[in-house]
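Batch job 17 of 40 flagged for manual review because the log was empty.
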Amino acid sequence: MLKIISLGDCEAPELNYKATVGFIDDRPVYCDKKNLYDETQPFAKYTRHYPEVNLTPDMLATRESARTIGAGDLFLPVEDSALKKIASVWREKGLVEAIRIAAGEDPRRVTKIVHWIATRITTVLDFIERKTSSCDGLPSIGSGSVADIAATRDWNTALIRCLAWHPHCSRLALATRDDRIRIFSSGTQSVAVLRHGGQKSVCSMSWRPHAGRELAAACCGGVLVWTIELGAASYSLSHATFLRQRNHAPVTGVAWHPQGDLLVSCSPNDLNIIVWDVAREIGIPLKRLGGGGQCILRWSSCGAKLLAATCRTVFRVWDTGTGRPWTAERWTVPNGRVAVACFGPHQTLLFTSTEDPATLFSLPLQDNIFDARGVTSFSDTKIAIPLIDLTKVLFSSNTDDEDGNEGTVVGGRVVAMDWDPSGKYLAILFQDSPLVALFKTSVGTISRVTQISPGCLITGFPGEYPNCLQFHQYLDSDQPKACLTIAWTSGRVQQFPIVEKSQSPIKCY
């Protein structure tokens, strides 16, 4: 039986004026602020290839010379007849949307009888929608709000609200508090700044795989899909497509399929997941009743599974394998809702709920390929296995604190979690702790059992708290296998390299 480890099994961090800057040879490396950018530091050679990012409050909401335009600004509108417009909507979005369009038209353009009928039908449809979704209303603050759902600590006040690495290159997108997205790329000093009238309250971003310059952002009013032109003279050529669906706002989750052909989004006010045809700007609802609005979406690395977590205890795992209709397995957590979740190797899902005390669970979802007869034994049954007890733990200070602080707390409610694509490292960010917990993990190929052991606790400089994080996968064999990017409250974006012993250079004497 697997032992459930706790945060108390982690080695106590050095609670001094130094920050943790790397995990090299299974040991944390610390550095003070004065020597952070010293090229002679042992961690510097692993981070010099990354763009240097350091934002401050006075950099937000300033006048950049760059200007962005939407795709709609490039073309003149064409006025179609009302009946032609209604017929077009009917073909593309169905009868219900066509009726709504007819109800919104001038009665003289569609005849008074058609307008009267469409208006009455729309009133009935609105009444039904209010009754079915009234219990899923999204509060502006507190439990169930956008700030509560976003994978960001203190989302309302954070300088950096979310970050996203491109899966195939060193390109980083940062969404900041001033409703702008900044793009940092290796090898260039310039920063692309993306602005749009609909780009409000960004809480999730996703780069399109196999397309270097397409970025989807979850916004208050819908989904923005940016096509980004890089280079000092090309920012004004970046443009965005604004995808909107009735009752599908605010959008709190957006994710591209690993093959880059499908885009999905979710909203706490919508019972349905929307699968977007981006080229045609059409959204197809993926319907499932029960559980309330949707708040979190995650694809497995192979694209065969899609996690959809609701605002209640229900979460579903969709089987999206090609060649057959999509089906969903329904799961529930004892209390609260799924707070964070991420997929790892072999379709293994890690998740934790908002209940207190929090526990990290592992759920193996890959079918047993050796079971040719389709007979399942008790050992093959899919059950959620507890891995880590995330109850709060107090680490005492190992130096005399002039302010009289007894130490620091780690654990409690989880805000963000990310699993290194190789399946070797897991990072967890908490709501009430200034530390990030790093664990070493491995998933058995046949047994599908996730083994986990303590790594280290990552500290910032005095007064800093982590806001959000994400792993970046190295593709260069000369670099370490994993790097964790952490955005701190000070505006500092840290690249935290993880270097295994076999990767360390041999010292010559």
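Reviewer: the log was empty due to a logging misconfiguration, but the result itself is present. The CA atoms of residues 341 and 480 lie 25 Å apart. Unflagging and moving on to job 18.
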